Amino acid sequence: MPEILLDGWQGLSPTAQDILILLLLLAPAVLTGLVVTFGYRPFLLVRSLLWRYRWTNLVFVALIAVSVGLGVGLTAQERGLRQGTARAAEKFDLIVSAPGSEITMLFASVYLQPSDVPLLDGETYEKIVSNENVSLAAPIAYGDSFEGYPVVGTTPGFIAHLSGDLAEGEMFSRTGQAVAGSAVEVPLGASFTPAHGVGDGAEHEAHAGAETVIVGRMAATGSPWDKAILVPVEAVWEVHGLANGHAPERAGQIGPPFDTDYFPGTPAVMVHADALWANYALKSDFTTDKTMAFFPGAVLSRLHALMGDVRQIMSLMAVVTQVLVTAGVLTGLVVLTRLFSRRLALLRALGAPRRFVFAVVWCYAATLIAGGAVLGLGAGFAAAGLISREISRRTDILVRAGLAWPEFHLIAGFVSLTLLLALTPAFLALNRPVIADLRN
Amino acid sequence: MVRRLAASALFVLCLTLPASAAEKEGHDHGPAEHVSELDGVRIIHAWTRATTGAEALVFFEIENRSGKPVSLTGGESDLGASVALVGMTFKDGVAAPVALPAVPVKDGGDLHLEPEGLALRIGGLTRPLAEGDVIEVEVAFDIGHVDVDVEVEAEDATGHSHAGHAH
To answer: Does residue A234 share a domain with residue A110?
Structure first.
């Protein structure tokens, strides 16, 4: 029997599994509701109670909504950030660089946070390009900037790989031309002189005379490359007083093939293979004494796994918040039932069955809890959206934090647990002395 | 995460009865061979992670000193319904194994099967794998098959406990 269950479970699509988990989490709430209200229609009375104490009820609903919103907003945001950083790295199949720190190279090559790293020489580059499994090998040469925008030297092939067709303008065809990222606030046709280095320490006069015109603009990539200015790698070498990658007779050429003897070096090479299996073979081929090869996606995955503890703490915080609010809500409900204890006593004095009164109190609590949870869902969605926009603005990584199944499961679990616990104030309300309450 | 928990719970439930009977099957607590060889193709430091799930990923290093290119094609194991060569892909930061055809290893070249990269996936595990166990997997190349002792490391291991040692 369990094997049939396991087979059946594994045969379901992920969405079907999520729906089933949601229904299972909601089942205690629904079953409790059906049992409590069986044979009675307490809703008219509940509605009048809700209206009679509307402001107090609103405060309760708002409290629940804020707690649920914080919980789901927090988990959605964490996932959005994780997915955003991963999406930004997806076009970077394999990075080859000099041996060192994969994290440093990941930050430099994918997220354009440059570091001083050793360069790969022409011979090494040639080995990469001439590997039969390589369909694209592009140098990524960073270190210059313009008004905070990183200026990166690369090839037209890499730009096409990164963002597809240009959103406007044309590809650079000579040194002195550049393609801007989608979020670079420099218009087409404008010219600039790159500074040597980035940030406050950048030397603005170091490349005087290397005037560059923006001739095209990339489509948005959702990565820090949207705020980069891409120039021919030959231009980066030339402004640093180096050979430009080509023999003198081909000095005007842009892009590959490069001449090994005139290849000054590059901090990193982005490598792409058409066949998935070839990437693994390439990684093994270029993991040598002179080169380091890594999958940015894999390094990120390890980073995310390392941060798993933080994620668990965040989830725990969300749950603890919910539990605290649940405790607060239940205490509040006990106090609330005291508020309308006289009405309940009157009901019982008029001959209303005890179970009917019980149903009224429980349904009243259920309405507050369910209303708060639904409002919280909206609050969490709104909060996640606002925070995502701010993170995207600050990091240039497109973060889209939407609500997904984990949030729905969290809320379903919260609602079920709270509705089960709401049976307690209903029992307490039932055990109040009728005569004493009528006299009060 | 809830999905994984649910699947694990079902799997543990499923294994409760047959576990005791299967406990000795394919179980070897003796010292594992760290190197296996087939006509100059060496497989070093094979390992996997402890699991109660239905799948396990097996990692190792291949050194091809056979004088000719060879291809890794997959494998077989008594402990699982299938053994397939998979490569890890990442979509939105989530790792997803994708079945791969044969992967060639050049003469004189190495191929590393490692987490977040290539692996042999044992599907339909018949029993949980506990840390310290040694399981046997038959690794298939185009030139033949070779039996490999696979050491079961911790559930969250990132490498073979003997990695870095020369053999």
So the answer is: yes
